[in-house]
TrEMBL record:
<dbReference type="InterPro" id="IPR057620">
    <property type="entry name" value="POT1A/B-like_OB"/>
</dbReference>
<keyword id="KW-0238">DNA-binding</keyword>
<dbReference type="InterPro" id="IPR012340">
    <property type="entry name" value="NA-bd_OB-fold"/>
</dbReference>
<keyword id="KW-0779">Telomere</keyword>
<protein>
    <submittedName>
        <fullName>Protection of telomeres protein 1a-like isoform X1</fullName>
    </submittedName>
</protein>
<feature type="domain" description="Telomeric single stranded DNA binding POT1/Cdc13">
    <location>
        <begin position="10"/>
        <end position="145"/>
    </location>
</feature>
<dbReference type="InterPro" id="IPR028389">
    <property type="entry name" value="POT1"/>
</dbReference>
<dbReference type="Pfam" id="PF25507">
    <property type="entry name" value="OB_POT1A"/>
</dbReference>
<dbReference type="GO" id="GO:0098505">
    <property type="term" value="F:G-rich strand telomeric DNA binding"/>
</dbReference>
<dbReference type="GO" id="GO:0010521">
    <property type="term" value="F:telomerase inhibitor activity"/>
</dbReference>
<dbReference type="InterPro" id="IPR011564">
    <property type="entry name" value="Telomer_end-bd_POT1/Cdc13"/>
</dbReference>
<dbReference type="GO" id="GO:0032210">
    <property type="term" value="P:regulation of telomere maintenance via telomerase"/>
</dbReference>
<keyword id="KW-0158">Chromosome</keyword>
<dbReference type="GO" id="GO:0000783">
    <property type="term" value="C:nuclear telomere cap complex"/>
</dbReference>
<dbReference type="Pfam" id="PF02765">
    <property type="entry name" value="POT1"/>
</dbReference>
<dbReference type="GO" id="GO:0016233">
    <property type="term" value="P:telomere capping"/>
</dbReference>
Length: 463
């Protein structure tokens, strides 16, 4: 319980800029939450950006130092309010900031506009409350309703399901994994529970499957990492040549963030996120409103079998393919990749991104006369290679009359009827969503997970 003492004098942030070298008291709104990191010494460091009526945009950074990370402020969400006593105003190279000294400074944290309570949810050991604090708290809440920085950010915030090429936006997402690239950059694997829009493809199918890689990262992710990914929703790869200070925090555990001023492009038919020079990474609390909204929407999706399927296959997948397991439970490709059994069957909704060979006259082996085709399949969660061979291939292709096979293959690969090039460079392809059954298997008993493969089974191309 906070003790009470004489009234404190709180300076507006704009006036605080004139008090370099002086201990001051501040009451302000938290606009940005930094990562808790190790200093060059033994302390932990946290930086918060605070704003008020006098500096609603620029604000001031407050640097906290502590020998124990648990003694630093743990702000629940942007927009919460902080009371600071005896912090020192500093300036370096023309930039002003406040320094919180663990020996004589103190703080209290209050919920923002979502609350009407006047009691802090976290205080430091030296904090002493005064009677005038409640009035300032309520005044800041009233101001925050219309001027809170995050309110303006909502207009530029998109979900993964709404991303577009060339549009600069903010993304509230969970960072599931971080890896380093060969040039010293970073790749963030981020997720918000929604499906990125399916893309059209342009390229010559005769170039094989390499033009549509399974992933953008240099090396495939380990099974351990994949098993930490959610089974539903797109995991976007976000590339950054700049190493943000928050990355060290993100590499330790999965964390929700707001990626500010990012954009997307398309590489090899895959969405690629980019953090540029003007981008920012803002850490979010698990109880931030935008985080709770994302989690609530995801929970609703997981409880509905109709919402678990790709959001863009409404009202139903194409009937080009038919499967013989009508009662089988739907699985995403990520469900299958993280399945606890190596050998299993899955019923999925996918798009056939590419096939090799794809020309009807080349589908059969010139040696054995049997069908053998390798395809690239994708859904919002992953891409995989799968084989159509042996008795499964006879069933798959045998359902189509010989004279209709070319037409049906074009339809499966998304080649419009009469399109220029018939799969050549000038052809845009938009493969439909289709049902298919998959069976996993492995090649080597000594390395079953490393040699796992997929075959399409119990599926027929009917057109």
């Amino acid at each position: 319980m906070a003790t009470r003492e004489r009234e404190h004098v709180y300076l507006p942030l704009k006036d605080a800029l004139e008090c370099v070298g002086v201990k001051i008291n501040l009451f302000a709104v938290v606009a940005e939450i930094g990562a808790i990191i190790r200093s060059r010494g033994t302390d932990y460091v946290l930086t918060l950006k605070i704003v008020d009526q006098s500096l609603p945009i620029l604000g001031i950074s407050v640097n906290f130092f502590g020998d124990d990370a648990t003694r630093l402020p743990h702000v629940k969400a942007n927009g919460d309010i902080i009371c600071l006593h005896n912090v020192m105003m500093k300036a370096y190279n023309g930039n002003h900031y406040c320094l919180y000294n663990k020996r004589f400074s103190s703080f209290a944290l209050f919920e923002g506009i979502t609350s009407i309570g006047i009691n802090p949810y976290e205080i430091s050991s030296k904090y002493c409350r005064s009677d005038g604090d409640s009035a300032l708290l309520l005044e800041l809440r009233r101001w925050s309703i219309d001027h809170l920085p995050t309110a303006a950010l909502k207009e530029s915030t998109l979900q993964l399901r709404s991303v577009k090429v060339g549009v600069v936006f903010d993304l509230v997402c969970k960072v599931l994994h971080v890896c380093e690239t060969s040039n010293g950059g970073r790749i963030l694997f981020v997720w918000d529970g929604t499906d990125a829009p399916p893309l059209q493809f342009q390229g010559n199918l005769d170039n094989g499957l390499d033009q549509d890689p399974l992933h953008l990262e240099e090396l495939p992710l380990s099974r351990e990492v994949l098993c930490s990914f959610p089974p539903v929703g797109t995991v976007l790869r976000v590339f950054s040549n700049k190493v943000f200070k928050e990355f060290s925090h993100l590499q330790e555990s999965q964390h929700w963030v707001r990626l500010c001023n990012m954009n997307c492009e398309v590489l090899s038919g895959v969405w690629k996120g980019i953090l540029g020079p003007s981008s920012k990474v803002r850490l979010l609390s698990n109880v931030d409103d935008s985080v709770l909204d994302s989690l609530m929407n995801y929970d609703e999706r997981m409880m509905s079998s109709a919402k678990r399927v790709p959001l863009t296959c409404f009202p139903a997948p194409s009937h080009i393919l038919e499967v013989n397991h009508e009662n089988a439970v739907y699985s995403t490709l990520m469900d299958s990749l993280t399945h606890n059994e190596i050998v299993h069957r899955s019923k999925c909704i996918v798009r056939v991104v590419a096939a090799c060979p794809w020309h009807v006259e080349h589908l059969r082996s010139p040696v054995t006369g049997r069908y053998r085709v390798k395809v690239t399949l994708e859904d919002p969660t992953a891409r995989i290679h799968a084989y159509i061979v042996r008795e499964d291939a006879a069933r798959f292709f045998g359902a189509s009359p010989e004279q209709d096979l070319a037409h049906n293959m074009n339809a499966l690969l998304g080649i419009a009827e009469g399109a220029s090039g018939e799969g050549g460079n000038s052809t845009y392809r938009d493969p439909p969503w289709v049902w298919c059954c998959l069976r996993s298997y492995y090649l080597e008993e000594s390395d079953p997970w490393g040699t796992r493969r997929y075959r399409i089974c119990d599926t027929e191309l009917v057109g």
